[in-house]
Amino acid sequence: MEWLDIYDEHGNRTGKTAERGTFLSKGEYFLCAHVILENTDGLFLIQQRSDTKATRPGQWDITAGAVDCGEVSLDGALREAKEEVGLTLPREKMQFLFRDKRRSCYHDVYYIQIPFSLQDCTMQESEVQDLRLVTRKELLDLLEQMSHRSPNYKRRLTEFLSHRS
Prior knowledge:
165 residues, alpha+beta, Nucleoside Triphosphate Pyrophosphohydrolase, 4-stranded mixed β-sheet, 3 helices, 9 strands, 21% helix, 35% strand, hydrolase, NUDIX_hydrolase_dom, Hydrolase, NUDIX family
């Protein structure tokens, strides 16, 4: 059972919590954290969702997940990276990119570049069934295909990635 804080339409905690998967009232939101992981070779980590997942089984995505009750989004991002792909990320190198709102969820997007390889990663089998390192162009192509990401999310992430040297 996973409990999450409920946020209002301005992105503030309401003081209420709900179980993950609960239908929220209009103007209520959960918070998710996303991590764009780039290694020092300029390759980005993507993960294939487990075939047993209820939503988007088998689809390729970036590291992301719900922010637990009492966590701030940065803590959620660090925890998700550790749980899903086995990487302990340095907090001080995490760069907040933007917040996007889609349906009943806010998505806080972070970026980090650190040295790592696929051999450094450990998959959480209940969440992830494969990992891959891709080029910036491959990540942008994947992003364009993601129907579960808003146009604003895609535009802002594309702008950020396109301006990276």
